[in-house]
Design goal:
Layout (H helix, E strand, L loop, with lengths): L15 E3 L4 E3 L2 H10 L11 H10 L3 H12 L4 H12 L4 H16 L2 H14 L3 H13 L8 H17 L3 H15 L2 H15 L11 H17 L3 H14 L3 H23 L1
Length: about 270
């Protein structure tokens, strides 16, 4: 969480680790902020026994913990648990809480597959690719909902392909892009399948004389993207680091490399969460 959060409740010595989002929370204000800004991926399972125990033991708010446990044991819906948390902590205004109520009512009107897709989409947008895949996969593994259009399922397959592509697992990405294309016949899915196929082959790709127009278009688009990458901030930074090595500035070189690797490790942990 990068925003400044004004906290009045006790800060925990041992933070609560929200594994699906790759974050740790230390107090109730941070918990409210997390729930409010990730409402599309919050489910009743979020209010687990371990979270309730954290609220009781680490933040000292035993009354809130007891209320949440009673709601959980009584099989209350998600909206009741979220609003109870928000009203108790008094971190958000009445208007903000009313807005969240509207969002929760919309989510309650969706069926299971629609809610899973909404969560998957949110995880995908936030770079939590494995969490996105897990939610999308639950849709695919369930019986087909005939009330949903075919395009809904095509989008699910396509987005799994996007998640795997972001993880550089190109063979898996190609499989899902092709499945999406079979359902929707949408050129975007076909283009993505062609793109990840080329990326998987890398330098081993053999250009065919009988390539389709779409394959040619994808080839040119990839070449343009690769050329443009040379002007990105990340590329310039890596070039500067490499320059330090060439100039025998070894101390700065290893420090810079360590910084880059630490950043990549943090990204990987978020992707895996």
């Amino acid at each position: 969480m990068s925003s400044l959060i004004l906290c009045r409740t006790k800060e925990a010595v041992r933070p609560y680790h929200v594994r699906d989002m790759g974050v740790r929370i230390y107090n109730l204000e941070e918990l409210c902020y997390l729930v409010y800004n990730n409402i599309y991926v919050i489910s009743k399972d979020f209010f687990s026994d371990s979270l309730i125990s954290f609220i009781s033991e680490e933040t000292g708010e035993k009354n809130l913990a007891a209320k949440l446990k009673s709601l959980k044991d009584g099989n209350s819906n998600l909206a009741e648990m979220v609003i109870t948390l928000f009203m108790y902590v008094d971190y958000y205004t009445v208007e903000e809480i009313e807005a969240i109520k509207g969002v929760l009512e919309t989510l309650n009107s969706q069926n299971v597959s629609e809610r899973l897709k909404t969560r998957g989409d949110t995880y995908l947008e936030n770079g939590c690719y494995y969490s996105a895949i897990r939610n999308y996969q639950k849709i695919i593994d369930s019986p087909v909902d005939t009330t949903l259009p075919a395009y809904f399922y095509a989008k699910v397959y396509h987005n799994i392909g996007v998640a795997y592509a972001k993880l550089f697992i190109f063979d898996q990405a190609e499989t899902y892009f092709n499945e999406a294309f079979k359902i929707s016949q949408h050129d975007e899915s076909k283009k993505c399948a062609i793109a990840v196929h080329r990326l998987a082959l890398g330098d081993n790709i053999i250009e065919r004389d009988d390539a389709t127009e779409l394959e040619y278009v994808v080839k040119r688009e990839l070449e343009t993207l690769i050329d443009n990458a040379r002007y990105s901030d990340e590329y310039r930074r890596l070039s500067e680091i490499d320059k330090n090595k060439d100039e025998s500035d070894i101390t700065n070189y290893y420090a810079d490399v360590s910084g880059v690797l630490d950043g990549w490790k943090r990204d990987y942990i978020r992707y895996k969460s």
